[in-house]
Target: Coenzyme A biosynthesis bifunctional protein CoaBC
Amino acid sequence: AAHFSKNNPLAGKKVVVTAGPTRERIDPVRFLTNFSSGKMGYAMAQAAAELGAETLLISGPVALEVPSGVTRISVESAQDMLEAVLQEYDSADMVIKTAAVADYRPAAIAAQKVKKKDGNSVIELERTIDILKTLGEMKANQILIGFAAETDHVAQYAKDKLERKNADYIIANDVSAAQAGFDHDTNEVTVYGQGGFEKTFPNLPKTELAHELLSLITEKEFAK
Ligand code: CTP
Ligand code: CA
Model:
């Protein structure tokens, strides 16, 4: 388009990034979560802002500073994250779902601290809503980007998620590889897109990788 700028290719665009883990409460003092540090999501938000986008970061609980030029909305559970993303979806040009959303939550949250008893115990879990899939079903013109951390069959699972969630891209990483994925400062990914698009990036610092990933997608989607 005539407005495309090489330095600020996302100027005038609104990018929503989700990052970090979610926290699913068991009782007033306990919760279920995962090892997501939020680093990749925060790096994606920083890259979006650097490329000129109005950038909103919807973040689960992490110990990271808000990148400059980015507005953060803090959330706790998968349900909170879903509601926050839906508020912003109509006005978004791109949604990047870097968050490690819990797939299950306790079926009930105990009002009082659960006391221990003799013997084993069981927590009944129910499924959370798949945020990316929900966005995929409602998609208008938004570019939808998901992440997938896999320990095996990376390409197969990533391509399956691309179709199942109606995403435009799935950025997949093999978390069994050294120095990649949860809590590392570097990552090694392959991007899968519609029409058989596939591109592998070398192991890079997450900030650098985020910039490369977003530049690639921006070029493919908005520079035409
Ligand atoms: N995702 C989501 N909402 C969920 C679960 C996942 O939006 N309740 C998103 C993630 O943010 C990510 C993508 O879906 O962008 C893939 O997440 P992943 O956990 O790899 O996929 P799942 O569909 O949950 O499959 P599984 O965990 O069984 O591999
Ligand atoms: Ca999952």
Remarks:
- The CA atoms of residues 27 and 112 lie 6 Å apart.
